[in-house]
Write a structure and sequence with these properties.
The protein is an alpha/beta fold. It has 21 helices and 10 strands. Strand 5 and strand 6 (365-366) form a beta hairpin. The longest helix has 28 residues, at 423-450. It is elongated.
């Protein structure tokens, strides 16, 4: 009887395996053919299919239903990977499974990129398929004994688990370059390998942070607190200068940025570890001073680690110097677990969307000028302590195609464009309008700093370039770097004027260190924590 049951499972098992391999060919970029992959990768694919087929047949009691269900899940991953590759230049990895839950909590940020129509169609088709298979396909338990059913499905799942384990032991380490790894080993093997690498990785030690020594309470500077400047560091959503990349953009679009860049004491291009999204990768690098490579497999979402493991940061270093540290982010505090992360990084206060009104919206999100007003009010709230304010803006966050461009705004953004706009200019026009709002925010924050008796320093940078696939396809993609600058309300000595300071290209993890040095005149990157002397034994 067991032979008959296994025979009834073999056909759907084999057909499902063939389709699982065929579906990988739908990926873009496409993995290498089977014969060009390591043998271990193919063993993992076979084991994964046996494991999934066995488990879902055990759960659903219907092998054909299990085949369709698992293949449907694979298609969701394939479509998600293709969408992510198109918009973010990175395929789907194991870490991205948690974003399916985020897509339920924050659908505006995710579902439109996948396709609202496609999401509705897939959900409807899934519901119809579930009902159809439950009605048409008989349960194996009703045809065979429960013991035989459990034995056969358990055998398949167990064999699959063994093959996956054997394959992973022989596969070798991943390069943690998702495009390369997916191409080399295929979808199933890359997902397993990244998951295993994540589980085996360890969080960075606090001593690895360049802010470790400066964050110690004993490191409080002797400088009079009244002389310390207020510091505002702005992470401007999707901010970059599109004019060198796209000649159709109005040259006057970023006039406040141009003026500030000229006056800045430090400026240049920032190499950021993100494209189009994954803001927290850049954010984490700037705040902690750690390069992505330091995080290993945790680099793709370091905030999951930081929500449980505190690290010294530029915020904790400023706090150790007597600063009141505030983070302003006009979005729900729980997104990316920032409500847990920011206190771990040394922020005294976290101001989220609950501190703003619906009238503060400009487009889909809280506007940059409303955030600038909030910063201005914080700077006026003087408790005799200098302020370090870290701002994470939202106005220019995608999906940009949910907004419609208006002809009236083209004079300030795309003066030579004709109406109606060509497809490759529609999202670009929306982006440029919000970029102009960011430019005005820059001017407003500078004004707020200048109005205080206390000196002020402003740091400004973009977290990544925007998601503009149609425009990139027409004009060619930009380099992916974003501008940064550090500006001061205090005049600089004649021999150190900004005009004499050439732009310097730096990595994102260097920016906070440079900001700290501008305030205190001390490079802390080579500081170490001095160990406490061991007590001497009494004779």
């Amino acid at each position: 009887m067991l032979d008959h049951l296994l025979l009834s499972l073999s056909l759907p098992l084999f057909i499902g395996l063939v389709f699982s391999l065929a579906f990988e060919a739908l990926l873009s970029p496409r993995p290498a053919p089977l014969w060009q992959r390591p043998m271990a990768a193919n063993v993992i694919h076979l084991g994964s299919w046996l494991l999934l087929f066995g488990l879902f047949t055990l759960l659903l009691q219907r092998p054909w239903f299990a085949v369709v269900f698992v293949l449907s899940l694979q298609l969701v991953v394939v479509q998600s990977s293709n969408t992510k590759s198109k918009t973010l230049n990175e395929p789907f990895i194991c870490h991205d499974f948690e974003y399916f839950w985020d897509a339920i909590l924050h659908p505006r940020l995710y579902v439109p990129f996948f396709g609202i129509g496609l999401a509705i169609a897939a959900s409807s088709a899934g519901a119809i398929a579930i009902g159809g298979f439950l009605y048409v396909e008989p349960s194996l338990v009703s045809q065979w004994s429960t013991v035989l059913f459990l034995q056969s499905t358990g055998l398949l799942a167990g064999l699959g688990a063994v093959l996956v384990a054997v394959g992973l032991r022989s596969l070798g380490a991943m390069s943690l370059q998702p495009v390369e790894d997916l191409h080399r080993v295929g979808l199933y093997a890359s997902l397993w390998a990244y998951g295993v690498a994540l589980m085996r990785s360890s969080p960075p030690a606090p001593s690895a942070s360049p802010y470790a020594a400066a964050s110690q309470p004993s490191a409080v500077a002797s400088q009079d607190s009244a002389e310390r400047p207020n510091v505002v560091l702005v992470q401007s959503e999707s901010f970059f200068d599109p004019r060198p990349w796209c000649p159709e953009v109005a040259p006057t679009l970023l006039q406040h940025f141009d003026a500030t860049f000229t006056e800045a004491v430090e400026k240049g291009e920032l190499s950021v570890p993100a494209w189009g999204a994954n803001t927290v990768r850049t954010e984490c690098a700037v705040l902690t001073g750690l390069a992505p490579s330091t995080w290993g497999a945790r680099q793709f979402n370091p905030y999951r680690t930081l929500s449980r493991h505190p690290l010294p940061s530029v915020a904790s270093a400023f706090r150790a110097q007597g600063y009141r540290t505030i983070c302003v982010h006009p979005y729900p505090a729980t997104f990316y677990m920032r409500d847990n992360v920011m206190p771990q990084l040394g922020f005294d206060t976290f101001i989220d969307i609950s501190a703003f009104d619906s009238s503060d919206k400009h487009g889909q999100y809280i506007g940059d000028q409303a955030v600038a007003r909030k910063v201005g009010r914080l700077l006026k709230d003087d408790d005799n302590r200098p302020l370090f304010i870290f701002v994470i803006t939202m106005e220019n966050h995608g999906p940009l195609h949910l907004e419609a461009p208006t002809q009236a705004r083209l004079a300030a953004t795309l003066p030579n464009a004709t109406w109606p706009l060509a497809d490759h200019l529609r999202e670009l026009a929306v982006y440029l309008h919000h970029l102009g709002e960011a430019d005005q925010m820059l001017a407003n924050v500078k004004t707020a700093l200048n109005e205080r008796m206390r000196p002020g320093i402003l740091g400004w940078y973009g977290d990544h370039v925007p998601i503009l696939p149609d425009a990139y396809g027409h004009f060619m993609p930009p380099t992916g770097s974003t501008p940064y600058m550090i500006w001061s309300t205090q005049p600089t000595p004649p021999d150190q004027t900004p005009a004499k300071q050439p732009p310097q290209d730096i990595a994102a993890n260097e920016l906070g260190l440079r900001l700290f040095k501008q305030v205190f005149g001390h490079d802390i990157s080579n500081d170490v924590i001095k160990a406490e002397p061991e007590p001497q034994e009494q004779e």
